[in-house]
Request: fold
Amino acid sequence: MTDRASKRPADMAEPDDELNLADLLTQIAARKWLVAGLAVFGALAGGIVGQLGPNEYRAEAVVQIEERSSGTPLPEELIGNLLSPGQGRRSSFDTEIHVIRSRLVLGPVVKRFHADTRAIPVRAPVIGDLLARRGLPGVNALLSDAYQRPGESLALDSLTVSDALLGTALTLRVTGPESFEVTGPRIARIEGRVGELVETATEARLQVADIRAPVGREYTLLKEPLRNSVARLRNNLEVSERQSSGVVDFSFTSEDPDFSVRVVNAVVDSYREQNLQRRSAEIDQSITFIENKLPDIHRDLEEATAALSAYREQQDNLELSLGTQELLDQLVQIQNRLEELEFQEQQLAQRLTPNHPDYQKLLAERARLESRLAQMRADLKDVPAAEQELARFQEPVVSARELERQLTARAEQLRVLKASTVGNIRVLEPAEVARLVGPDRIMPLLIGFALGLFGAIGLILFLNFLRRGIEDAREVEETGLAVLGSINKVPALAGLKPGRPEYALARSDPENIAIEALRGLRTGLRFTLAARNARTVMITSCAPSDGKSFVALNLAMVNAQLGTRVLLIDADMRRGKLGRNFGITRHDNGLAQVLVGECDIAAAVHHDTETGLDFLGTGGLPPNPAELLETSAFSDLLSVLSERYDLVIVDAPPVLAVSDAAIIGQKTDIVLMVIRHLVTARPELQSALKSLENVGITPAGAIINQYDMKKSRYGQHGYHYGAYSYKYKSGT
Reply:
């Protein structure tokens, strides 16, 4: 077997750094119940988390917002053609969203539904929403009476508090079918009944409309500042435009479906009303400007008319020539045009900055007319002095009369425009019902399942990565060492020291699966011994506690049970304790005494009548065990024993602990290494093999001890020899 292992092709070993999908799947399959359990647990946890949140209902309304100029759409005869179509600054939809979500629009909604007054039921931590939505009989009895249960409610008619208590929570506790008590900071305990107004001296006043809750339930009463209530509504309000079409979706989400419907419709109404008021306010500002200017113009007209009449009486009704009259008419027209420009400037100043091109165009037009007016006044000085004086008195009369006529007409036009004003907001689909939109109770379950599944897989792969012990025969064979068999772990022997009756498993429990594995190892060992004409076998391990003594003891017993002459030698003269299984102590003669010549072999060998096994213990502790083993006396002893026995099994100390194993191995025919499953590390095995190789020893094979399918990364799919999960009983 050793030769075959030593000639194993190098390409049969799998590279350590190659990702082997089949290997990963095998590791996962070995822990399929752990994976399934954690996946189910994750799904249950996710399902519970998904049930914790309250139901959410969303109501939606569809509105069309027509694009319009941000200014008042006045007739062209009033504002001229300075603002041609498309040149006016228009409100973007983003601006409208800010307007809709502002306190200007949401404030009236809060006041309309008294959303700043709240009666919040006290709910259990974590599961409060679930408990309020559906009954949990097993849990209800364990929770406080203060927590809300399904179907319970309290309707608050009104609540008024002082500024000091604004935003402060008050506690209402139900004390009877229609009675309650209220407590809170800065107020004494007060009692009341449904429908009655309850008040303190100055701090609070409230009225409860209805109570549908048993005695002991508690509610938190809160009067919020308007800004807080508006912010709460704003957080649940969504406004979005459909691809720049002007069609806008309004939606509001809350725990109450009726409240969601009413609020979203109220927001649309408030926005439409504010829109109309804004348009009307622009027209009102223009009318006010005209009405404030008309009295001054009328007074100026009366004064100018009186001055003109007085001058004509002095000049015997002097009249203007045709040229002077024409010049005067042009001068009046320019003055009226300047008055129109002043009105237009008032309009533009409401929505444009002085740097806007349209505003600059108006200023340029006014400057041109003022220059023209100055030129015409200069031309007027060329006419006769009498006509100049008459024109000077007649000019303000004509100008004031024409300006009064124009402003009066403008005011009437604006009043007609205001009466016919319609908003640019049109409701296409008002909200009628609210639909259940959340929370998503399936997704947490799926997420929990996925987290549990992949978490379990990750945990398995991580733990297997941290595990440095040899996993199966494949890892052993990659070192060039053949595996002769695997011995199942015996849980009952965990932590058991040699000397206890259970340690000799072949004698105490011969039907154990581990003994069956040793029987299989016995068969293979017989062929190996016959092929090599060998009779002496050394059994060792890399380190202590790998189970070499257990293997040596029980392997010797199962061979002796066939009637074969078998001798077991405990050659661990430092810590050997196999003698306890035969009632032998270190005070009895043993190997040490035989090697120093204090007794002969016959006096040191003990015969076990139950199994037919002969045993040679360590004897007293020698001061120099390595030197004793290295003498020719030990070699001669093995030669004599190999002639007397068909099989001599030597239990040697661990290779890496002391040099005894290397000495014994040179004097025996075959060396077997015991490897503890999942404990003996591959570098540790390689180091032990190197130590033996340095003295010319090549082990014939290895035995994997305490093979544990449950802890193996591959489970029952692992690559091993001689480890079974089948157990039988004699007579069945």
User: Anything to note?
Assistant: The chain has four domains: 25-53+439-466, 56-264, 274-427, 473-717.
